[in-house]
Amino acid sequence: MNAHLESLEVAPVGTPRKARAVALVLVAAGAFAVAVGLRSDAPRVWTDLLVDGFLFVSIALAGLVFLAIQYLAGAGWWTAVRRVPEALMSLLPVAALPMLAVWFGRHELYPWTRPGVMAAEPAVAAKAAYLNEPFFLVRMVGFLGVWSLFAFLLRRASLAQDGQDVGDGLAQHRRMVRLSGGFIVVFAVTFSLASFDWLMSLDPRWTSTLFAVYTFAGLFLAGIAAISLIVVRLRQGALAGAVGGSHLHDLGKLLFAFSIFWAYIWVCQYLLIWYGNLSEEIPYYVVRTRGAWLPLFILVPMLNWLVPFLVLLPRAAKRNPRVLAGAAAVVLAGSWLNLYVIAAPAVLPSPRLGPLELLITAGYAGLFFLAATRSLGRAPLLARNDPFLGESLRHHA
Length: 397
Known about the structure:
By secondary structure, the chain is mainly alpha-helical. It has 18 helices and no strands. The mean pLDDT is 90.
């Protein structure tokens, strides 16, 4: 086993030239679509940029959340796949830049930034101390900055653990546990505020006390789906001897469980607003359950819950790489559509789904592929000196 581990440690993931070329083409095509779209239909493009920006920040942030939860729980099963959520976590600075670019489209997206809106609506004017452009930008930079800082510190400790002896490796592990504890507290506050700022304030009259929990459920569900997809791909290559059916089974159980949790929060928010029947809450659902928005509204829980629930219910399905990858891909599509249904009705009169959305999303995916493979290629695929590595490698035995 030791010889095999050494071969894995010195074999980080390389990016095939063809795959890298395709990713660069996708990035260029996405940038071209943005440039053309801003000239012809700016509100649509800024909506797409917000949806894609929030989704990919969420996936990157989910890698950090996943790491923190495993460290704090003292889990051992996941150590063989630790580099995957680390790679997602390392994407935070990359994801932050496109998200910051949304600031330049604020007048198209956020009505409270337009002159006269605050004075015309007392309910919105009451939030002026919080909803103002300078403070909004400061918060946006602060949230993305502090998340990126935690990602940097955890990644640095992880890489430092690789180059030390077992005793020092244990010290770095304890350092990562402490960083995880601090991050979880900061994350709970900052992500709740970011969800309000970037999504809920698209309609500053609307309010929901469950919205932060709802967006967190979507974040973690999309993150587990992304981790599962990457692990399945690596299991076909460099991690074939380290990741077994039990690791896939655990990832499948997490994807299955959090699809149910997401659906529970989705239903709770809808039912609370429906039977509360308050004038400041119901317009959100009135718009989304009528006309051309209704089919998309119904499709979201089918992709995020019904499909993964039915597909991953059998034990064998969770251990099947193709089935798990397929369910994860459906969940990622549902996560994108969920954010579109949250954001687009506040900006656009009707759904506009076409080549523009496909190209912009593909551009983001290409950028993330390049950044993720770069991260995976800068460190051994198995974390050296992790005190739980042996337990994880025996997990599938």
